[in-house]
Design a protein that fits this description.
The protein is an alpha/beta fold. It contains ten helices and ten strands. The chain has one domain: Protocatechuate 4,5-dioxygenase, Chain B.
């Protein structure tokens, strides 16, 4: 059967994608950011996942005020990188494991999670930047990618508890899929940052590090964090961290931390990254 073997959490700062695309990764400002991903690049090359379930948020590229799904799963065979105003990133198309995606959609909906099924969609930096961080600049991505989009742009976003529960439902779906697949799940976005208003530039390293600690030490505490705490402590865009809880919920109770990276600043945001493995 298919199995989820590991989870990855990472920021998806758009300026990181620009630094990669423009060959700036070794410049003094950017080098500390990218150095923290070197371990993971070697690890994932050895792990060779067949499929990555990549949880991200759309930044008003594919979804706008006309359609705002709380949870959406993309089920068609392939997707293009989105044009976010300056042309699409020159990265490979994203190829889906459509059979598994449809299976997850069916399983989660029958498990009482109301997933929106989308097919004709372009994918923005929320999804492509994490892939570039882990895989560099290949001619094609080395595995299939199942995109799951979460609304953390327009109020109300889902609660951390609901996201964690969705991760548990995704794990049940994967385990019931009758194909031998090594599956990883990634949660992206965050960490603390605010892009506008009087608190623009807010970063809270202590809160971020405690969040990373509790992914292994006390995930139940993370499930209970209210929206107002994310807003107060991590800025208006810190709510993206609820997407990491989908990843964490899919891994089950026994996990171990393999790698962690945290760096401030990167384009006025905090970059966080963690690799978790199911402890068998």
């Amino acid at each position: 059967m298919a199995r989820i073997t590991a989870g990855v959490g990472t920021s998806h700062v758009p300026a990181i994608g620009a630094a990669i695309d423009l060959g700036k990764t070794q410049e003094p400002y950017w080098k500390p950011v990218f150095d923290g991903y070197e371990w993971t690049k070697k690890w994932i090359e050895a792990e060779k996942p067949d499929v990555i379930i990549l949880v991200y948020n759309d930044h008003a590229t594919a979804f706008d005020m006309d359609i705002i799904p709380t949870f959406a799963i993309a089920c068609s065979d392939s997707f293009k990188p989105a044009d976010e105003g300056w042309g699409p990133r020159k990265v490979p198309d994203i190829h889906n494991h459509a059979d598994l995606a449809w299976h997850i959609a069916q399983s989660c909906i029958l498990d009482e999670f109301d997933m929106t099924i989308v097919n004709n969609i372009d994918l923005d930096h929320g999804l492509t930047v994490p892939l570039s961080l882990m895989f560099g600049q290949p001619d094609q991505w080395p595995c299939k990618i199942i995109p799951i989009a979460v609304n953390v742009v327009t109020y109300p976003p889902p609660s951390g508890n609901r996201c964690y529960g969705l991760g548990e439902a995704i794990a049940r779906a994967v385990e019931s899929f009758d194909e031998d697949l090594n599956v990883q799940i990634w949660g992206t976005g965050g960490m603390s940052h605010q892009l506008q208003g009087p608190r623009a530039g807010l970063i809270n390293p202590d809160w971020d590090q405690k969040f990373l600690d509790n992914l292994t030490q006390d995930p139940e505490l993370l499930r209970a964090i209210p929206h107002i705490e994310y807003l107060r402590e991590t800025g208006s865009e810190g709510i993206e961290m609820v997407m990491w809880l989908i990843m964490r919920g899919a891994l089950g109770e026994k996990i171990k931390e393999l790698h962690r990276h945290y760096h401030v600043p990167a384009s006025n945001t905090a970059v966080g990254h963690i690799v978790l493995e199911k402890d068998t």
